[in-house]
Each structure stands twice: as C-alpha cells, then as structure tokens.
Design a protein that fits this description.
alpha/beta, two-stranded parallel sheet, two-stranded parallel ribbon, rod-shaped, Transmembrane protein 2, transmembrane helix, CEMIP/CEMIP2, membrane
Length: about 100
C-alpha cells in the first residue's frame, strides 16, 4: 500500500506541475498578446495627423487648390468657396466674385 500511495502522490505532483506550466504559458501568451495589441494601437495612432480645429489647414470644409504658376492669368474665385492652397502659386490677380 505504501508503494501505491507513493505512485499516486507522484502522479498528483506530475499532474499539478503540468497544470502549473500550462497556466504559466497561458498567462505569458495573454500578456504578450496584450503587449502586441498595445504597440499596434500606439504606432497606428501616432502615424495619423492630429487634426486641430483651430488650425485653418485642418478645416474639413476646405477644398484642395493648386492653381499652378501662370503669371499672365487671372484666377477667379467665387465668394463662399473655401480653398486650401496646396503648393506655391503664381498668377496675375485673384478677383473674388459674388454669386
């Protein structure tokens, strides 16, 4: 009976050790997964431009505008149109017309 109790105790200890290893691996896996998700979120959020409502360039109602370099041409803009100049431009005049 002493031999069978010893074998039974060894099996219990072995099973308990296996369960501890399994739990440790699960814990490490969950921690690593959470770390990777955190890194992804941090780098994805850092890449994007931070939009500031007070900055005129970030106003979503502005249309991109690139009239180019035409020193002899007048560029006409209608009142109420909102443009964001994307690149440098050269033109003769910039009249703003109503209507």
């Amino acid at each position: 009976t002493t031999l069978s109790l010893s074998e039974e105790n060894q099996r219990r200890v072995h099973t308990w050790n296996l369960q501890r290893r399994k739990n440790a691996l699960i814990c490490c896996g969950v921690s690593l997964g959470a770390f990777i998700v955190t890194l992804i979120l941090v780098f994805c959020l850092k890449k994007g431009n931070v939009l500031d409502e007070n900055c005129p360039d970030h106003n979503p109602s502005l249309s991109s505008w690139n009239p180019g370099h035409q020193p002899d041409k007048a560029v006409v803009v209608k009142r109420g149109h909102l443009f964001r100049l994307e690149r440098s431009a050269t033109f003769l005049s910039l009249p703003i017309q109503s209507g």
